[in-house]
């Protein structure tokens, strides 16, 4: 898939495909994405790398989550996580209070978890392979 072929009506979550925490987070998003807003691609995938290059993010500094809205904007770290949760509605709207914290503080906490995610949650040898039922949510 090429950048021009990305769905314009979906928000794309780029995630670390070998990180257990990231994979669990993707499963969480899929479960709560009642409006079918999101599509997914591993940062390590060919498409993930194309998107990262296209938007000009240095993944040595941002290596765990990027939210990309094709043709509009991209977000990373805590801002991406909070914007993703915002789409769930319901009880999760209460988490919007976290946006009141200064970005440097929320990114500090985000970076602390991201830095230790393999040690705390483990790592897989390869990117997750979606089940046939979930395959449509993942971009190739």
Strand and helix layout:
Layout: E1 11-15, H1 20-32, E2 38-42, H2 46-55, E3 65-69, E4 73-76, H3 77-86, H4 103-121
Parallel strand pairs: 1-2
Antiparallel strand pairs: 1-3, 3-4
Helix content: 25-40%
Rg over CA atoms: 14 Å
Which structural class should the secondary elements be placed in?
A: alpha+beta
Any idea what the shape is?
globular
Tell me the number of strands.
4
Distance between the termini: 6 Å
SSE sequence, one letter per element: EHEHEEHH
Percent range for β-strand residues: 5-15%
Mean pLDDT: 84
For the sheet with most strands, the description reads:
4 strands, mixed
Q: Looking at the chains present, what oligomeric state does this protein adopt?
A: single chain
Strand arrangement, largest sheet?
2-1-3-4
Runs in which pLDDT lies below 50 for 5 or more consecutive residues are none
Number of helices: 4
């Amino acid at each position: 898939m090429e950048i021009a072929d990305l769905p314009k009506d979906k928000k794309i979550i780029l995630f670390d495909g070998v990180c257990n925490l990231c994979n669990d987070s993707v499963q969480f998003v899929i479960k709560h994405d009642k409006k079918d807003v999101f599509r997914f691609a591993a940062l390590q995938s060919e498409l993930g790398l194309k998107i990262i290059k296209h938007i000009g993010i240095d993944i040595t500094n941002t290596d765990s989550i990027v939210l990309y809205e094709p043709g509009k904007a991209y977000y990373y770290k805590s801002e991406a996580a909070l914007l993703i949760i915002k789409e769930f509605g319901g009880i999760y709207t209460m988490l919007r209070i976290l946006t009141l914290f200064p970005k440097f503080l929320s990114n500090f906490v985000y970076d602390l978890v991201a830095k230790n995610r393999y040690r705390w949650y483990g790592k897989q040898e390869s990117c997750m392979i979606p089940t046939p039922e979930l395959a449509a949510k993942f971009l190739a």
